[in-house]
Amino acid sequence: MKFKRIPIAEIENLLPDVIALTLDSSNITDDFLDFYPGQHTTLRIMDGAEEIRRSFAFCHSPFENVRPRILVKLLKGGRASHHVSKRVIGDEVELSEAYGFFYADINAEKNRVYFLMAEGIGIAPIYSILKSILLAEPISKVCLLYESANADNIILNAELKLLADKYNNRLTLYHSIQKAGLLVNLSKSDYLKGKVTQEKIQSLFESQNFNPEKCEVFISGSSELNKIGQQALSHLGIPTEQIHCNRFYEINSSVPPSGAYGSSTIVVEDLKINAKGSQTTTILEILKLANSDIPFSCESGLCGTCAARLVDGEVEVNTQPALEAVDIASGYILTCQCFPRSKKVTIKY
Ligand SMILES: Cc1cc2nc3c(=O)[nH]c(=O)nc-3n(C[C@H](O)[C@H](O)[C@H](O)COP(=O)(O)OP(=O)(O)OC[C@H]3O[C@@H](n4cnc5c(N)ncnc54)[C@H](O)[C@@H]3O)c2cc1C
Ligand code: FES
């Protein structure tokens, strides 16, 4: 997994707990920072002697000529958040190439409708997708349903408003405000009170007269929003393969297997790695001990950075929310979520 040190060009405090880091990419002359809208980069940090990695979605469009930007929500007690909050302009951050299966495949010829749903900081990859559609898929239309805690807390509010004004015949913007007391800067037509529910999604979708067959859905936020969105939109007839989900955080309560397991050899075809380890540890953990260049980030099945194709052998899968059915059908596994179950397991990145 390749990382590069990139200087911070600008730091913006978007909200008291959300900052935007704009990167000075002038020294990156290759395709290192190329990405599909929706994908993320991995931030690598040394916290004392320990290396930690966290995913951050690119929050700009690859179809505009701007410097790369990521948004960071500052979490109380968060290790990466704390590190980022201490950075100043000119400091370098260590970032990876883009990864992830959550992305929009923009095609200028296509005439599609996009139904985008975001919650809080989940707007970062959705903003990249939204802007890319508006810039590079000129006959497609977009509807964004965006849930925020309150009306003063809408991340990228001004940028979204500008886009809604500029592309008023192609973009419809709805805000769902959990605590709907203060309705600063929101017109009645684009405001829904309270949390997003299945009923709200259904009535909003129907009001747009979208054809479910032509609709691509992207949902980014909590597991709850993803679940509600998936259920409501499947119910409306949108094929499952057109509903794409992105979860930033999930409490992973899985317990590692215990019992009489033996050991396995993991072969990575393209990296010429042979690593032996216990069948009670994940493929990623076995590989990390053998090679420091192995791709990974969240280690909880959410980001897809550790994905590889299973070439041969058997594995036991824990949970793979970052993969869609089509990815699984083409042989992908998340190495951070799979335990080897045959003497030899061969994978390929
Ligand atoms: C694909 C993907 C893309 C992401 N993109 C972004 C992005 O664009 N911007 C961004 O800010 N973050 C993004 N994240 C989340 C980010 O990677 C980190 O998980 C987050 O910044 C927390 O890291 P931390 O080290 O600060 O907190 P940690 O030290 O990991 O956690 C601190 C405490 O907060 C809890 N916690 C962690 N995350 C959350 C959460 N989201 N909500 C509530 N509690 C939490 C933990 O359980 C722990 O108790 C993304 C995650 C994924 C998987
Ligand atoms: S490291 Fe994130 S899904 Fe495996």
Question: What is the compact description of this entry?
Answer:
The chain has about 350 residues and is of the alpha/beta class.
Descriptive key words:
Ubiquitin-like (UB roll); binds flavin-adenine dinucleotide; 6-stranded antiparallel beta sheet; Rossmann fold; 19 strands; 34% strand; binds FE2/S2 (inorganic) cluster; 7 helices; 349 residues; 3 domains; Elongation Factor Tu (Ef-tu), domain 3; single chain; alpha/beta
Average pLDDT score: 92
**How many β strands by DSSP?**
19
Number of helices: 7
Briefly note the structural class of the backbone: alpha/beta
Radius of gyration computed on alpha carbons: 21 Å
Assembly state of the chains shown: single chain
CATH superfamily of the largest domain: Nucleotide-binding domain of ferredoxin-NADP reductase (FNR) module
Give, in order, the helices and strands.
EEEEEHEEHEHEEHEHEEEHEEHEEE
Helix content: 10-25%
The shape is globular
The top-level CATH class of the largest domain is: Alpha Beta
Strand percentage: 25-35%
Give a short account of the largest sheet.
Answer: 6 strands, antiparallel
Ends distance: 10 Å
CATH fold descriptor of the largest domain = Rossmann fold
| Unreliable stretches | 181-189
> What is the CATH architecture annotation of the largest domain?
3-Layer(aba) Sandwich
Bound molecules: flavin-adenine dinucleotide, FE2/S2 (inorganic) cluster
Strand order of the largest sheet: 4-3-6-1-2-5
Provide the domain count. 3
